[in-house]
Amino acid sequence: MSQARNWDEFMEGIWRQNPVFVMVLGMCPTLAVTVSGINALSMGVATTFVLICSCGLVSLLRKLIPKEVRIATYIVIIATFVTVVDYVIQAVSLALYDALGAFIQLIVVNCIILGRAEAHASKTPPAPAMVNALGMGIGFTIGLLALGCVREILGAGTLFGISLFGAGFQPWVVMVLPPGGFFVLGAWLLLFAALERRKQRKLAEVRHV
Amino acid sequence: MSESVAQIFINALLANNFVLAMFLGLCPFLGVSGKLDTAFPMGVATTFVMLVASLCAYGLNLLLTAFQLEFLRLISYIVIIASAVQLVEMVLKKYSPGLFRALGIYLPLITTNCAVLGVALFQTAREYDFIQSLTFSFGGGAGFTLALVLMASVRERLQLSDVPSVAQGTALSLMLAGILSLAFMGFAGLGS
Question: Which domain holds residue A52?
């Protein structure tokens, strides 16, 4: 496996196939937990861990798993790692566990993980599969942070708990409430669509000349 | 738990709507809400799976607690839900092949619908008894169907209007969901 190929696998999840902004997968945890930067970061790290472990194991077992029951097998593998993460978070930080609530256990049904296991890890050897999973996980974390930071800054006037604007700031409470999640993600997607449009127009102009 | 059955139902249906207030089941919400004809059956199918899953999860939880095997909860819930979905799939395929084709890939994906697993997990976390669990899952399913139908109706109308081409697709759906969610916040405190 050459260096360039590995780098390509890694960058796929971060930019070209970003799970949040390009593939729009894993929406439920994305919107539900991103009321603050720190929640977003911990959710991203937890998901990345599950993603790497399950992709690695799926890839190791890829020749043993019969085709007919593969989805069920993947889900059981994923559920095992999620249970591990659930108990670890509970032991390390009870405050965080309360803040994320049932959404830690709901990592099981995050489409990104099952999607990666099915589309990528079941066809590749363990090393590149895990590199790809790491990229995807980091891409997902970046997406979560992009939402969480915007919502925390606008909704509470803080970033990672540090006050930014002083006492005179009137927070937009709607941003930390459910509608804010939809609006912020919608705005990010709009921004990316507009950027993509501009890039394509430039390419077309170049070709025209 | 001192919540009455009616309170649980109203809460799950409106005030804490699964899709618009708790962000559960967003994938099918964004994916199948294009047409009213598929949105409603999808909602009904999901509600049915939720009811079955909630029933089984309740029984299973008693069993797991009796044997002190709580750490197996997540795995066993997921397996139960997968079997319930398989059941719905077979029934639909036999009695309504047209609908089966229309729902397509989204039918098996009910397994990974967080709303279904969410029902099972929340009813365990809140220690609902048997009747409360059933009410909760039925209210949640009805709320999911309501959100799906509302969204599909709005999107069908939007097809006739002139939307800037940059905003089309997921970005537009998310903005719409935000506005719907804003409207549902008016129900806050209704069930308490």
Answer: 3-148
